[in-house]
Write a structure and sequence with these properties.
Bound molecules: adenosine-5'-diphosphate, magnesium ion
Order of helices and strands: EEEHEEHEHHHEHEEEEHEEHH
Radius of gyration: 26 Å
CATH class of one domain: Alpha Beta
Distance between the termini: 58 Å
Number of helices: 9
Number of strands: 13
Largest sheet: 7 strands, mixed
Shape: globular
């Protein structure tokens, strides 16, 4: 079952507030995200930006404070109790950074994969067959009788991925799955996700701060301060490439088709039309709390406003406005434009 729009995951204006004593932490502040069925995507962002909070909510491990969230047609704000237990057990698979959280150390790889199926009441025959298929899919058939302690960190993480798929979830969630392994091992883990995504058309969301992820997935969504901010889409196209030399008849070889991969970065607009202007752009142009929008043939130009620059240390916006204005008055008329403001902003940054 899918939601009306056909997405497997839909989050609208999702809010999560943690309360500790009198302190409120807004971990998600109106986050929008949709995920297509069969998509392999990643979520990146600085520590504390709300990635794990989002993943835990998607996994049914935590409850949002407000907003809307649907997974596979289920309204996660409405379901509770045994329906939520069923959701966690059957709809989603979860892989954590610490493999220990997914696995039982004294069981073999195969027994670990079978365990969730035992809990779900599957027959021994079905368990054996599906465990074998999953261990083959993560390329660990030859290690199925090994105890966890006899496997490397990367192999354990691949067992953890197989365990997460034991009850045939429609959505696989992984929180920093390569956080504790070296880069070569990370590569094998990412390629495992890719293979499973292809083999089972498995929708997969990987949270990571590993920048190499962009080359491994179809789409990377960046979260900043509890909201999605940018999105990078990987586009694969076929291009013609000239082939040197001649064939056996002395004719020039025809060009061959090769794959060309490119990345396009987009800024996300939320349903109310808000967007995040990247901090470095704001700093460079000394953009503070107001801008001017100009319509042009090319699109919309966001212009800094004189006197509404960033508050620098030790001076208020008003003081800064006055000092910027003084600078402006001193500048020769020709230099009073955009370029001079830009240069001044850069000078201020350097000093
Ligand atoms: P990330 O995974 O991107 O590092 P988190 O989702 O873990 O970020 O955290 C987002 C914010 O929410 C942080 O400020 C964090 O301190 C806070 N937070 C996360 N979990 C809890 C919790 N259980 N109780 C209180 N605050 C929390
Ligand atoms: Mg986290």
């Amino acid at each position: 079952m899918t939601t009306e729009n056909g997405y497997i995951v839909e989050c609208h204006n999702l809010v999560k507030i943690y309360k500790i004593a009198d302190l409120e932490v807004v971990a998600l502040q109106g986050l929008d995200l949709v995920v297509n069925r069969g998509e392999l995507m990643a979520i990146v962002g600085a520590s504390g930006s709300g990635k794990s909070t989002l993943l835990n909510i998607l996994g049914g491990l935590d409850h949002p404070s407000a907003g809307k969230i649907y997974v596979d047609g289920l309204d996660l704000l409405k379901i509770t109790g045994s329906a939520m237990d069923k959701y966690r057990r059957e709809k989603v698979g979860f892989v954590w950074q610490q493999t220990g959280r997914n696995l039982v150390p004294y069981l073999t790889a195969e027994e670990n994969v079978e365990l969730p199926m035992v809990v779900a009441g599957r027959s021994p025959r079905e368990r054996r067959r599906w465990a074998a298929e999953l261990l083959e899919a993560v390329e660990l058939s030859d290690r199925r009788h090994h105890k966890l302690s006899q496997l490397s960190g990367g192999q354990q993480q691949r067992v953890a991925i197989a365990v997460a798929l034991a009850n045939r979830p429609v959505l696989l969630l992984a929180d920093e799955p390569t956080g504790e392994v070296d880069s070569a091992t990370a590569e094998t883990i990412f390629s495992t996700f890719r293979r499973l995504n292809k083999a089972f058309n498995l929708t997969t969301i990987i949270v990571t701060h590993d920048p190499r992820i962009a080359t491994q997935v179809d789409r990377v969504v960046a979260i900043r301060d509890g909201k999605t901010s940018t999105e990078t889409i990987r586009e694969v196209s076929q291009v013609e490439q000239a082939v040197e030399g001649a064939d056996e008849n002395g004719e020039a070889c025809p060009p061959e088709q090769v794959e060309h991969v490119s990345y396009r970065e987009f800024v996300v607009l939320d349903s109310a039309g808000r967007l995040q202007v990247p901090q470095e752009y704001r700093e460079m142009l000394n953009i503070g709390d107001r801008v001017e929008l100009d319509l042009s043939e090319e699109g919309i130009i966001i212009r800094p406003v004189e006197g509404r620059g960033m508050e620098s240390e030790g001076s208020t916006v008003e003081q800064q406005r006055q000092s910027l204005y003084a600078d402006y008055q001193e500048a020769p008329p020709a230099k009073r434009g955009f370029a001079s403001r830009l240069k001044r902003a850069l000078r201020q940054r350097r000093s």
